[in-house]
Amino acid sequence: MATDLHTAALPPAAPGPARRGPARLAAGLVACLAALAGVLVLGVALGARSVPFDVVVDALVAYDPGVNDQVVVRELRVPRTLIGLAAGAALGLAGAVIQGVTRNPIADPGLLGVNAGAALAVVSAITLLGVSTPAGYVWFAFAGAALAATLVYGIGAVGRDGATPVRLVLVGAAVTAAATSLTTMMLLGDIETLDRYRFWVVGSLVGRDLGTLAAMAPFLAAGAVLALAVGRVLNVIALGDDVARGLGQRLGAARAAAALAVVLLCGAATAVAGPLVFVGLVVPHVARRVTGPDYRWILAYSAVLGPILLIAADVAGRLIARPGEIEAGLVAAFLGAPVMIALVRRAGPARL
Fold it and tell me: Which pLDDT belongs to residue 147?
C-alpha cells in the first residue's frame, strides 16, 4: 500500500523539475546541511561590530564574561542565531504543509489567519493587560495563532464536504481581514501600544532570549514531528479529494493533522520571532524545484532551507546597515521577492 501511494502521489501530467533518485536527493540534502552549518558559523562570527574569529572561538569554548567581544558573541549572536535556526525550520515546514494541504502554491502560514491572530492577541495583551515585554508577548501570540487557525478550520469543516482547500482559503482570508481590522482599530487609538507593537511585528531576531526559545521548544518539536509524518498524506491529497478517498485516505483527519502541525510550528515561530513573511512562502518552492513533487523530500529540504534563508537575511541585515541593523524579516522579504518572481516566471501561469 505504501509503495502504491508513493507512486500514485506523483502527478503524472504535472510539468515540473525532473524526478531525481533517492541517492541524489539524499546527497543534495547533505549539501544543504553543510550550507546550513556554514550559515550558522556566519551568524555567530559576523555582525555590526567586528570581532576577531579567535575571540569568537574563545567565546564558545572558553567564555570569559569580562571580555566585551565575547559577551557580544555569547549573549547576543548565539541566541539570535539559534532562534533563526528554529524559526526558519518551523516556517519552512509550515509553509510546505500548508501549500500541500490547501493545494495552493501561493499559500503561506498566514493563510490560516495565524499571523493575524497572533498580532491581534499581542495588541490585545498590550492594550488591555499592559503586557510590555517580548517574554510576555509570546504566550499571547501563540494562543492567538492557535485560536485563529482553530477557528478557520472549525468554520471550514462545517458542511457535507468538510474542510476543502477552497473553504480553508476563503475562511482564512475572512478571519485574517477581521483580525487585521480589529488590530488596526486598537493601534490607531493608542499610540503607546503602536510603539511597542511595531518592533515585534517587523519580525526581528534581536532582543529574543533563549528562555523564550526554550519555552516554545516542545511546541516546535511536536510540530516538526507531526509535519514530517504527514508527508505521505500530502502526496495523496495532491491527487485530489476524489482520488484520495478512493485510495482510502481519511481527508478530514489528514487535514486536521496538517492544520495542527501548522499551528504548532507557525504559532511557536511567530511567538519567538514575530510574524516573519516570505520564508514559509518561498522556501517550499525552492525545495520543490530541487526535489520534485514528493512532499516527504519537500518537507525535509524546507526544514533545512528555511533557516538558511532566515539566518542569511539576519546576517545581511547586520552588515549592510552598519553600525545599525535591518530586521531579518525585512531582509527576508527583500531577498525572497525576486526569488519568488523568478520561480513563477520559470514555472509559467499554468502551474499556478
Answer: 87
